[in-house]
Amino acid sequence: PPTQPPPQCYPGSNDPRCPRPPPTRPPTQPPPQCYPGSNDPRCPRPPPTRPPTQPPPQCYPGSNDPRCPRPPPTRPPTQPPPQCYPGSNDPRCPRPPPTRPPTQPPPQCYPG
Fold it and tell me: Where are the alpha helices (DSSP H) in 38-98?
């Protein structure tokens, strides 16, 4: 009898001389139990929950919101101390009471 070429057997071959593997079926698994917090890899993952968005802080001078940046305490600019001397016009100097001429007793007027 004429020699036939050996069958070309490969996965998916239709040659009737090739052994047929049994059809592979995925093992029947129960459907995934999906619930919040489930770790089953077949379950869809919900997006990570974020804390509720808070309104931005109301920052204004004197605000006590801890999220606001604290400005440095304002100090008045350092000025040299006032030069106080008699007759000084510096408004920061104490004003002495205006000097009056010493009160003299009224003249003693009498006839003659």
Answer: none
Spatial CA neighbour of 69 closest among 86, 56, 82: 56
Q: Which amino acid is at 4?
A: Q
Looking at residue 82, its pLDDT comes to 80
3-state secondary structure of 53: coil
CB 96 within 8 Å of CB 86: yes
> What span, in angstroms and rounded, lies between the C-alpha atoms of 95 and 44?
84
* Residue 90 neighbours by CB under 8 Å, 6+ apart: 82, 83, 84
Say how far apart CA 20 and CA 13 lie, in whole Å. 9
pLDDT in tens, 32-46: 888 887 888 888 877
Q: What is the pTM of this model?
A: 0.19
Q: Which residue has the tokens 């101390």?
A: 81
Interatomic CA distance for residues 22 and 11, integer angstroms: 12
